[in-house]
TrEMBL record:
This is Sodium:proton antiporter. Residues 411-431 have a biased composition (Basic and acidic residues). Residues 387-431 are annotated as: Disordered. Signal peptide: none annotated. It comes from Echinicola rosea.
Amino acid sequence: MTTTIIITLCSLLLIAYLFDYSFKKTKVPSVILLLLLGWLVRQATVLFELQLPDLSAILPILGTTGLILIVLEGALELELNKSKIKLIRKSFFGALAPLLALSFLLTYIFEQYGGYTFRDSLINAIPLCVISSAIAIPSVRNLTKSNREFVIYESSLSDILGVVFFNFMLRNETVGLDSFGIFGLQLVVICVISFVATIGLSFLLSKLEHHIKFVPIILLTILIYAISYVYHLPALIFILIFGLSIGNLNELHNLKFFDIIRTDILNKEVNKFKELTVEATFLIRSLFFLLFGYLLETSEILNTSTLIWAVGIVVLTFGIRAIQLRLSKIPLKPLIFVAPRGLITILLFLYISPENMIGLVNKSLIIQVIVLTVLIMMVGMITNTNDADEEEGSDGGDTDLEGASGQASVEEAKPVENKADDHTPGDGKST
């Protein structure tokens, strides 16, 4: 039995790798294929009457670990400098505004239709309003650099803001000035913890000479997150600050505490740490979606009573996204398609206590919304004609999302012989 489990796990993860590797050609998000593969494994166990233990308790553990690693991976990839301030501002607005707008709109609908309380309706609505960085970031590898950066910032911030908003509502029976005062104090505390922990972890990363040095750093990161969460602190902020800090050492070298650290050595170690984080994230993310697919019942996927709700929520999701992109003066295509729900939606749904659950939001609705948003993103990626590699090869610097649509039409009108002059550093590119 042990050998069978090892063979099965290795085979499934190798297939997951093939799904991820083939994305650039097929543009089919691996999450769809992983869910399908997990579901097929479940059908095989039923067909051959194999008895397996209940694995549902493992799902939140994989989900939480995956969320930490995904946010850390995204933070390590982000550039933090003055030229990115405009992009960060737009990404923050793109993460926060649709989250709040859709959350309160769904809350109102749940209240009016089902007669549920405002708090219970909002707690159940929030998971449906968070963009999944676990799905969005790997799915935009074929887009231009500016679009990829926007999605990384936006989806990472959406995860963090969504979790913070969800926990705030879950832990406060009533919302008032006291609640916001305590929350403000928690933000200050987690920022101080993040600063101290970042210094300590950076020092360890640069000074450890043992042949095993990256696993302890990841374990300490997860441990600090878990302890912070126990004390009701917005722990994902620590992950974001830590990742941004060590991923942007060149921008932070003027800070005094870096005097005790060899930044040249630390830069080399951070590059290796990034590679390990990416590998670990792939492993945990694949296991999570495989297990979630395995735990799905066919009746939950094909539940027609929730399908109309799922379609309605998806329509509202992309309608609000279109408004948000217009207000930010960002071209609709292809970013309008990139609003998938996924790991964070499942994880927050699992954290809802039975007394706060409402009948309208169930496992069927969650999986249908995830599948529909991912399918829409897949169609958007397939129909997108931008060649990211070509644009990046001709780009000498950062790109600007705002001028992309206008720049596209201007470039099309220019003679071919002047094409070499079009791509100056800082120019917007067609999206």
